[in-house]
Design a protein that fits this description.
alpha+beta; five-stranded antiparallel β-sheet; 1 helix
């Protein structure tokens, strides 16, 4: 019923070979498991980072509360020479640093892109005067919207600096897109009324 092994040396060789094969299989399985675990960890980290960036790109955006223009009459020409925006962070958005927000203007005068923190004009005394201010923090150089109640005023002086886009005439249309550091965009459309009078100093757009 049982086979008698007479050669003891042959029996030992078979046992060692089986043990070597078994150890090799365990090593291969351990290496494969390590590779799978490392790959799974890397993919999980990458998926979390992608999810956070995607969420920020959707939610961390600005909201345009109001927009108006400054009317300037020069001779027979009546134009809008400055655009004022009141901005807030959108619901669910995190803190938004206006110094890292870019703006793009597309309209009848062409296209112009710039950073909001570049909106500075030179005063008569030669010092810089920023065209970005936050209502809730007057006199503060920190232009970061941290609370839903924060409101920021951003002024676009259209010509010649700092925007250098050109003044808007009656009936002109302009598309303005704000892009935050996370890549979230907010686009608003501006349309100048077809009638402007020299008595007007400002107009809602």
């Amino acid at each position: 019923m049982f086979e008698t092994i007479l050669d003891e040396e042959e029996r030992g060789q078979v046992g060692i070979g089986t043990l070597i094969v078994f150890i090799a299989m365990v090593l291969v399985a351990a290496i494969a498991a390590g590779v799978l675990i490392n790959t799974a960890g890397f993919l999980q980290t990458q998926a979390e980072a992608t999810g956070e960036e995607s969420t920020s790109q959707v939610s961390d955006r600005l909201q345009v509360v109001s927009q108006s223009g400054t009317v300037n009459a020069s001779g027979d020409q009546i134009n809008v020479t400055e655009i004022d925006f009141v901005l807030a962070k959108a619901p669910g958005a995190g803190a938004i640093d206006l110094a890292q927000v870019s703006a793009e203007l597309i309209g009848t005068n062409g296209q112009e892109s710039f950073q909001v923190d570049e909106l500075e004009t030179e005063t008569e005394l030669g010092s810089s005067d920023s065209n970005v201010s936050i209502f809730t923090a007057p006199g503060d150089d920190n232009v970061v919207l941290t609370d839903s109640s924060d409101r920021a005023e951003v002024k676009f002086v259209l010509e010649p600096d700092p925007v250098n886009y050109g003044n808007l005439s009656t009936g002109d249309r302009l598309s303005v897109t704000f892009t935050t550091a996370s890549g979230a965009t907010t686009t608003t459309e501006i349309r100048v009324p077809t009638t402007l009078t020299s008595d007007q100093t400002s107009v809602r757009l």
